[in-house]
Design goal:
Layout (H helix, E strand, L loop, with lengths): L2 E6 L2 E5 L4 E5 L8 E4 L2 E5 L4 E2 L8 E21 L4 E21 L2 E4 L9 H25 L27
Antiparallel strand pairs: 1-2, 1-5, 3-8, 4-7, 5-6, 7-8, 8-9
Length: 170
């Protein structure tokens, strides 16, 4: 089985033909081809290790989608100083499909096809979700069942008496 170690976005990834992986954002519309030229190693029966790069090796990939990753929260605190900061961010990512690995010893293509996420597919998916939501609301309305509201929270008692101290002041 052939594989390659490629550097993209400051990170290294081990990829095989037909694999999908996510990297820091690379410009390109879904369905467009991208070449990754920073190949550090091509492995298999006879591995080829570059110093630092393998000459003549490259990865041909197809952009499947552009998306945002999960939210990363950053919390900073200094105790006893009333200092607390909460920040967060979501990274812009690109999902790539490895179509072919080209090495000095030959070319290895993927057996399967990429699953390209276009704007049309996203719009259709949102439309189906909206239709299902409306249909669920209609069936609830027709059956007369609604979600029960939570009871109001009990009010806290105020004006609690403090314990009288038994010690005398000197």
């Amino acid at each position: 089985m052939i594989y390659a170690v490629v550097k993209a976005g400051g990170r290294q990834y081990r990829v095989v033909p037909g694999q999908t992986f996510s990297v820091e954002k690379i410009e390109g519309a879904p369905g467009s081809s991208v070449e990754l030229n920073e190949v550090l190693m091509v492995g298999g029966d006879a591995p080829v290790v570059g110093s630092p790069l393998v000459s003549g090796a490259k990865i041909k990939a197809v952009v499947e989608s552009q998306y945002r990753g999960t939210k990363v929260l950053v919390f900073k605190k200094k105790r006893r100083h009333k200092y607390r900061k909460m920040k967060g961010h979501r990274s812009e990512l690109t999902r790539l499909f490895v179509a072919e690995i080209v090495s000095p010893k030959g070319s290895y293509k993927a057996d399967n096809e990429p699953r390209i996420d276009s704007e049309e597919k996203r719009a259709q998916k949102l439309e189906r979700k909206e239709k299902a939501r409306l249909q669920a609301a209609d069936t609830q309305e027709a059956s007369g069942t609604k979600k029960a509201k939570k009871p109001a929270a009990k009010a806290k008692k105020t004006g609690a008496k403090k314990k009288a101290s038994t010690k005398k002041k000197k």
